[in-house]
Each structure stands twice: as structure tokens, then as C-alpha cells.
Amino acid sequence: MSSTPMDIDEPGAGTPSLNVTRLLGPNGPSTSKISEVIKNFRPTKFFQRDDVKEGRPQPYVLSIDFDDPGELCMTSESDETIQIYNVREGRHDKSLLSKKYGVKHAKFTHSSSGIIYASTKQNDAIRYLATHDNTFIRYFEGHEASVTNIALHPGSDNFLSCSLDTTVRLWDLNSRNWVAKFHLTNPTLAAWDPAGLVFAIALPASASILLYDYRNYVKPFKIIDVLKEKGPADADAVFRGWTKLEFSNDGKHILLGTRTGGHFLFDAIDGNLKAYLRKPQGGTRRPAPGEADGGSGALESSGDCCFTPDGRYVVSGAAKDLLVWDTLQTPNNKVLEPNFLPQEGKKEPVLVQYNPRFNMIATADKELMFWLPVSDL
């Protein structure tokens, strides 16, 4: 398919002056051990869109992602735009429009100038965009209902997409045709293990997580029965409200995030529940992927929790503050209680993402917020 020009904002639009150099230090974000700084994170930079016309409401952030080097942060937003931020300089970098197709679940490829994202209108294709010249490289067509999740392979150009059409599809960035298709009941989330040898698919309707060997994915080699392994979780968290599926970078754990009273932490080897991560404040308010009422205007979550890059901690949004669990702690009857990272203004962090290279957390609802370790605490 030939390259298709993509609409972009007028030059200079949406580029407010942002200065967090003092907070990032002379050489950029902190690279200290996470265990040394995790309790010192505080919101340090708040980004509000300056290009939103007067009288129009501030759009909602639909997804957050970082590129592989951790230098760029990207959001997809409810006004059908993609916003890109320079992490080291703490400033807004670029604003792209996708008015014709809409945009959600935007992900960087392994090239910082390449992104893929799902559509919100016209059709359910996934689009591959080169940001350096604002042209579409390829469309990935085949899904017949809304895409609920995109998961990029950690070391290659393959990715998985989940859809309400009851399929999960495996794609190669270099081909417009899908490589494999899985017909499953309500497959809303997918994730790769850090070595790229195993992928997982979450099926909330059957309360199960399927694990596949990437070298032979005819059938799953293991099924995690969430109902059986739910521990102290209530029934609401077992069959609905699943917001995130993620492997830890050390390969030890699988995180199943929920918008209810807690998250599940499973052993990645035997599939047993290691801990239920309780959220004392309750969950974030956005519906889980695939659960929004089409007529309500509700915006679905694309992930309100994540592992830190060392795999030790889980960071999560809640009704007010950020929550942090230390997975090395011994659970009390399978329950882990969090530490709180407070913030002023109490803006609900409904989306949470940890930078893969630096000690920096991004959260969002209507506005994007950068969290950094504050050394004088």
C-alpha cells in the first residue's frame, strides 16, 4: 500500500514551554535503583493541552506509551489526536491528527519514529504510521469489531491484537495480512513474556488466562484458572473489569489488573496466585476494555497498573493517589497492602505507565502528569 499523508496540526500548535530540567538533573531522568527511590515519587510536571480551543472541553487521554529508549512519551486522546512528549527536556514535542479514523491503544514500534494504533470509527483496522514524515506505512485489516488491546513483541516486529469480534490476531509489521488467528470467547487482553517466547491471552468471560508457546501456538500449554486462584478477591474481580495483562521483566510474575478492589499477581511458572494486591481506595472509574456501554460515552481503560522495570514493584492508579506494592513482601493470607504515593489536587490516575529506561512514571486522565523521585523527601 502506498504511503498515505496524515493530517497534522498547524506548525507550532500545542507546544507550550515546559521546563523540568531541574527535576530531571543535568543528564536526564534518574537511573538510581528503583528500590532507593520508589517511595520518593511525586507528581512534578503537569501537561495541559494549550491547543484545545477556548470553550471546548479538555480531551481525555486514552493510552500512554514510551518508546524503547524511554526518550519519548506518547498519548492517544479522545479528540482523535496523538500527542508526543520529549522526556529528557520535559516538553510537548508533536501533535498529530487522526480525525478520519480516530485513535486509541497507540504503541511505539521498536523504532521511535514508528507507531501503531487502533481505530475508533469508520472501520476496525490497525494503522502503522511513520511520524518523521506523517505518512501511513500500512493498514492491518481483518478485525470486524473494536480492538481492545495491542501487544508488541519485545524483540521483533510481530504484535498481537485483541478484538470484540472474538479473535486475537498475530501480525508482522512488514505484511498487511495476519500471520495467525485465534477464535476465543471474549479475548480482551494480551501480553508477551520478556524473552518473547511465551504470550498470554486473558479471557474474563471464562475467568482464565491462556499461555502459548510462541514457537508452537496451536493450543495453549497452560491455563491459569482465575476463579480457582482468586484467593480473597471478590467475585466481581474474577469475571469482569480486567484492565491490564503484563509479565514482569524478570519473568517471574504475571499481573492481571482489575478496576475493582485489587489486582492479581500470579507466578509466571506454575500459574498459582502469589498475592492479591488490595486497593483500599477502590478501583479507577473507567470501564475495562470491551465493557463500555456504547451509548454512555464512557471511555475504556487501557491500563491502570504496571510493573516497574526491575519487576519488583507494581504501581497502580486508585481513586486518589498512586499505590505501590513490593512483590518481595510476604502476603498476609495472600493479601498485599500498598504504600501510597500522595499527590496534591487528587487527580485520578486512571492510566499508569512506568518509563522502561528511567525512574519516571506517567499518569493521566484528562491531563498527562510526570512523576519523578524528589530527593529532598
UniProtKB/TrEMBL annotation:
What processes does the entry annotate via GO biological process terms?
RNA metabolic process
Note the SMART domains from the entry. WD40 (SM00320)
Going by the UniProt record, its keywords in alphabetical order are: Nucleus, Repeat, WD repeat
Kindly name one Pfam family recorded for this protein.
Answer: WD40
| Main localization category | nucleus
Superkingdom of source: Eukaryota
Cellular component annotations (GO), alphabetically ordered: Set1C/COMPASS complex
InterPro entries in the record: Swd2/WDR82 (IPR037867), WD40/YVTN_repeat-like_dom_sf (IPR015943), WD40_repeat_dom_sf (IPR036322), WD40_rpt (IPR001680)
> Carries keyword Ligase?
no
Q: Where in the cell is it found?
A: Nucleus
WD repeat coordinates: 140-181
Q: Look up keyword Lyase and say if it applies.
A: no
- What are the recorded GO MF terms, alphabetically? chromatin binding
Disordered: where is this region? Answer: 1-29, 280-299
**Family under the similarity heading:** Belongs to the WD repeat SWD2 family.
Q: What is this protein called?
A: WD repeat containing protein 82
